[in-house]
Amino acid sequence: ARTCVQECAVGSAVFDAMFNGTLATRADTVELPDVEPAAFLALLKFLYSDEVQIGPETVMTTLYTAKKYAVPALERHCVDFLKSNLGADNAFMLLTQARLFDEPHLAALCLDTIDKNTAEALAADGFTDIDLETLGAVLERDTLRIREAKLFQAVVRWAVAECGRQQLPT
């Protein structure tokens, strides 16, 4: 039977380098401080059995882990899960994550959803949490289906939230 180390090394070039490369660790334990336990468990399950175990609560951390440890097949499963769960209510949050994780196809789908359901997307909780760069990318589009006055009101809501994050007066 293969060991966990062997299975990880076969399924991930990063783990292979960690365990078998010139900089391989000889420690009894390997710490992965920036990986969530549920995401790492999903990664291990995938490497051992090709079983995909992701859900709304773990998909982002699993995607991060799959990217970090170079497991493209699991990355694709995570992105496909996000695509199948994309809606106006989470399009801005997913757009931010798609840009962060360099997933241009997912980002394009998010923008298309925002274009078609602009008012609903702007009313969603996640809108006021987006970063300035993402806001700018959306505002420069001429395909949004909303009146400019309503768009302006949404941007003011975002600005108030951003002032709160920056601890600035509103």
TrEMBL record:
UniProt cross-references to Pfam families, sorted A to Z: BACK (PF07707), BTB (PF00651)
Gene Ontology biological process: neurogenesis
Domain of life where this protein originates: Eukaryota
BTB domain boundaries: 12-56
Coiled coil regions in record: none
A Gene Ontology cellular-component term: P-body
PROSITE patterns in alphabetical order: BTB (PS50097)
Name of the featured protein: BTB domain-containing protein
Organism of provenance: Homalodisca liturata
